[in-house]
Amino acid sequence: MSSEAVTRIRIGGTAGTDPYEVLVGRRLLGELGGLVGEKAKRVAVVHPEALAETGDALRADLADQGYEAIAIQVPNAEEAKTAEVAAYCWKALGQSGFTRTDVIVGVGGGATTDLAGFVAATWLRGVRWIALPTTVLAMVDAAVGGKTGINTAEGKNLVGAFHPPAGVLCDLAALDSLPVNDYVSGLAEVIKAGFIADPVILDLIESDPQAARTPSGPHTAELIERSIRVKADVVSSDLKESGLREILNYGHTLAHAIEKNERYKWRHGAAVSVGMHFAAELGRLAGRLDDATADRHRTILESVGLPLHYRYDQWPKLLETMKVDKKSRGDLLRFIVLDGLAKPTVFEGPDPAVLLAAYGEVGE
Ligand SMILES: NC(=O)c1ccc[n+]([C@@H]2O[C@H](COP(=O)([O-])OP(=O)(O)OC[C@H]3O[C@@H](n4cnc5c(N)ncnc54)[C@H](O)[C@@H]3O)[C@@H](O)[C@H]2O)c1
Ligand SMILES: O=C(O)C(=O)C[C@@H](O)[C@H](O)[C@H](O)COP(=O)(O)O
Ligand SMILES: [Zn+2]
To answer: What are the residue boundaries of the 3-dehydroquinate synthase C-terminal domain, all occurrences included (predicted)?
Structure first.
């Protein structure tokens, strides 16, 4: 892709949902006004502390276009995904007289877009919102697909709504300021897309893992676009996770338990990396996944600097949390595993001894 090219990926438009586009490229700001639209009088730009300048620049730009624009600054990372911060946003909307035709813009990483989308889903029972993801993870996953939400002390994303955005603008230039640990953490969801659906992603990363760790790598745009296409295909046919969408949860059953155990101080992508290692070992021990594909998880995750291990002594607590994962049904634990490369499937009610053995490979 040349630096001027813009890729457009269409999402939804089936089962009564409004279609929207994910744009990937550079200098996409000119698209924002059109997405906000003429019916809106007010626009609220929700941004994290780390992007205070970006948030204010967007607010000023929207004000120049004639909107009553406000900026709502929220804490960085998971500290934004709380009921208290959502209430703070609702207060700001109420005080600015925000109506049903007004629009929320969420600019930031996945934590910010999850929160902004959730505030949009709940304000007046649902207003239009636009996502401007600024991390790899938010571009390839969080901002796409309409899952919005916040955490509670009891678990990850326990409160939320399906509320797709009106558009998603992935400006690759935003990635230049991202700390390397956050860049790499987003690669976990990219690698997830590779294992569940598009192995070319794995080939591209394996061809030069060090280059994959930076936005200036030769395959950055292709990795992001391929991952978005994986997600777009899935959520376009199953927005509300009645079946197929569960494959996007690969590695997440353990990951969310680790995040809760760490009081949301771990990056989501790091936890997903450990969770995929666990899911691969579970698949292998259950006799479903071949050794080569299971081993490939370790090598590729490690090659980009993602973690494979977590504390062995925490297993009882992690198991308790996993029992109330959103994929559980009654007392039935359910995991996404692979029957082979790009063959994700649901594994229901694994033998507790197999679960423990799989964690034996992950625990340290
Ligand atoms: N809704 C979904 O479908 C979905 C999918 C995947 C993940 N998620 C959620 O996404 C969240 C993780 O998102 P994340 O990995 O983007 O982390 P994040 O949103 O916590 O961002 C990481 C840090 O980077 C900062 N930041 C963001 N963009 C920056 C930039 N361009 N330059 C400098 N700093 C920047 C943020 O303020 C934060 O401090 C989790 O809460 C996870 O549950 C949601
Ligand atoms: O979009 C989905 O569906 C996913 O499962 C993508 C995940 O990467 C993402 O972390 C999602 O927020 C997890 O959803 P949850 O329903 O398990 O909370
Ligand atoms: Zn995720």
So the answer is: 186-328
Q: Is the ipTM of this complex over 0.90?
A: yes
Cα angle for residues 335, 312, 320 (degrees, 5° grid): 45
* Residue 325: closest CA among 242, 235, 251: 251
Summarize pLDDT for 298-337 with one digit per residue, the tens.
Answer: 999 999 999 999 999 999 999 999 999 999 999 899 999 9
Written as six digits, the tokens of 322 are: 């996993």
Tokens of 243: 């079946």
Sign of torsion, CA 63 141 91 98? positive
Q: Confirm whether pTM is higher than 0.90.
A: yes
CA dist., res. 278 & res. 335, Å (int):
10
Separation of CA 4 and ligand 2 centre (Å) = 31
Ligand 1 pocket, CB under 6 A: 48, 50-51, 76-78, 81, 108-112, 114, 134-135, 137-138, 141-142, 145, 147, 157, 174, 177-178, 182, 185-186, 189, 267-269
130, 149, 177 - which closes a domain: 177
Helix (H) or strand (E) holding 346: strand 344-348
Could you give the number of structural domains in the chain? Answer: 2
Structural domain including 79 reads 7-177
Chain center to CA of 74: 18
Q: 132 with 39, same domain?
A: yes
